[in-house]
Amino acid sequence: MHKEHHVTSSETIRDIVIGMSDGLTVPFALAAGLSGAVTSSGLVVTAGIAEIVAGSIAMGLGGFLAGRTEADHYNSELKREYNEVELVPEQEKAEVKEVFAEFGLSTHLQDQIAEELSKDKKKWVDFMMKYELGLEEPDPNRATKSAFTIGISYIVGGIIPLSPYLIIHTAQEALYYSCGVTLICLFIFGYFKSKLTGQPALSGAIKVVIIGALAAGAAFGMAKLINGK
């Protein structure tokens, strides 16, 4: 039997990807940059933790606002559609017919479907929202869930590049271990992210590693340049 394989990554997975991606990259680049300017791992840890806290809040707030915007947009369009089926029902029926015309249905069937659909206002509006506007009703708790998921994912990602600095007291020595651990995690993260989104896993993993390495290298080089070392 033929089985179809489709990408079904949820909104939660998308939020985890967003949070982890920035959580791994930004604190890693910050730690690398500071390692080029200071010798104490304590300073790197302090700055890194401050960045993780601020970054997780900012990212979480961004996720919350995006979720609220999505919900507000859906509710606004829903209200407009209800008004239109009340005020201009014939025009709305014509739009229903247009949808089915694109599927190749006959004019007779288009008329029948439009008439049947117009008997139930809620189903009529739901149909218009989905097939005319391409909008699905969002989860009412989506904004809060998104904020929490992105924020926690950012924290988890950010702890990884900082962990060697908690053990090793010399910043530049800790940087070597941080690079090793973080680049391995970036590769694993990039691999599974690409698998979930239906992209070539190996090339996706390599791209994520290159981006993280370039960000850290640029920050480290800039710190060295500024300090004249």
From TrEMBL:
Membrane topology (UniProt): Multi-pass membrane protein
Subcellular location: Endomembrane system
Keywords annotated in UniProt: Membrane, Transmembrane, Transmembrane helix
Top-level division of the source organism's lineage: Bacteria
Keyword Transmembrane helix: yes
The keyword Transmembrane helix belongs to this UniProt entry's keyword annotation: yes
Main subcellular location: membrane
One Pfam family recorded for the sequence: VIT1
Segments passing through the bilayer: 147-168, 174-192, 204-226
Descriptive protein name: VIT1/CCC1 transporter family protein
Protein species of origin: Mucilaginibacter dorajii
